[in-house]
């Protein structure tokens, strides 16, 4: 491992330059205007895997953006690690809030600023560089397969069929993902659970066209007023969600588990100051840590309708829209929750309007086992490079494909993330600490080593 440390030291500037090159390609999967760039990014990752020494590297076509696959099979009797990550990024807007352009990465205060710096280009590329190090130093201890997709930020629609059709090719003993965060640079943690997601769009229609709000206002339902009221009714005074049966399948944590969670370092005041909020908010009876990890939520992501241009236009709009997401926890099912939402929303609509609910993507919540050798190997790896035992943490974000690794590939996942919640992923000025980038590259080979050893001991 000393050999690897000195290799990292020797090549660290190039490792960073390559990440900066990757960050310069605007791989925004949500916006078709960037389609060529998304494809260029896939080709970039493909080339870097080849350069690092992977075999059978290819761009696997899908109905959407290609999946970059590569492997190094050194001995079929040894265990296999499947690395998953994504090369697509979120749209960069609002552009005016960036202090430097999102696709012109710059280093400030020891962090690289760019869209995708942390989510997930920076974290995904750590794996490519860790692999390069192990190959160059002849110390790759087991087999590795890479599966890097380009549609994570738009719901990974084409990945489940890819898993299904290539289950044999992707067979592995553990899936390793760096696309989550840790508590702090001096408080390492390993993610042991992610929330699921139900995402719907609603359309409320009042009159058949926009009307003069003086002539008709008062006598005809205003769909924006109605939608606002409907949305407001989805939470009660305790901030519980009011959709009937919404909580039926929620797995409650035991008092012991909650006590364990409460040990996670957290300061509400620092949190409020960081977000410029005067007070916390959320479901009665739960802490901020619990509200953002083990409890389900319902949030409006966007709402529009009527006149939103300059000045004032008196109009009673015909339509109102909202995009609503629900974060789910074990054992809720996204299909079931989406159906419950739809029924409830249609039921609470007054006769004066019509409503239409359109489901978008969903995903199931996951918990990853801490008694699996993958988790144990990750603990040992972080202990070696941070000098501290990592803490297990449940996180609030979603990576829907993780549930399918278990279902289709029958493999457990290790969520070994090196980002921080303050890295502004999906926000303006996203960044990733150079400490985190290099620490990740340093830690990953330890994971391979320990996972291989634990597999042998368990055989
Ligand atoms: N990397 C994130 C998920 C994440 C963020 C996990 C922070 C843990 C902590 C991922 O790229 C993401 O943004 N997922 C989406 C869901 C997807 C279906 C668009 C999310 O969580 O909103
Ligand atoms: Mn991500
Ligand atoms: Mn993301």
Provide a compact summary of the structure:
With 459 residues, the chain is α/β, with parallel strands linked by helices.
Can you walk me through this structure?
- It is a single chain.
- The chain is of the alpha/beta class and 459 residues long.
- The chain is 34% helix and 20% strand.
- The protein has twelve helices and 16 strands.
- It has helices at 2-24, 35-52, 121-136, 159-165, 223-232, 255-262, 268-275, 288-291, 334-348, 373-386, 401-409, 434-458; strands spanning 55-60, 67-72, 80-86, 106-108, 111-113, 143-149, 174-177, 189-194, 196-205, 297-305, 319-328, 354-363, 366-367, 391-394, 413-415, 431-433.
- Strands 1-2-6-3-7-15 form a six-stranded mixed β-sheet, with helices on both faces.
- Strand 1 (55-60) and strand 2 form a beta hairpin.
- Helix 2 runs parallel beside helix 3 (121-136), helix 3 (121-136) crosses helix 12 and helix 10 packs across helix 12.
- The chain is globular, with a radius of gyration of 24 Å.
- The model has no long low-confidence stretch (mean pLDDT 97).
- Bound molecules: ligand BES and manganese (II) ion (2 copies).
- Residues 86, 119-120, 152, 179 line the site of one manganese (II) ion (MN).
Could you tell me the strand content as a percent range? Answer: 15-25%
Poorly predicted ranges: none
How would you write the strand order of the largest sheet?
A: 1-2-6-3-7-15
Overall 3D shape: globular
**How many individual β-strands?**
16
The span between the termini is: 25 Å
Q: What is the overall pLDDT average?
A: 97
Order of helices and strands: HHEEEEEHEHEEEHHHHEEHEEHEHEEH
SSE-based structural type = alpha/beta
The helix count comes to 12
Ligands bound to this protein structure: ligand BES, manganese (II) ion
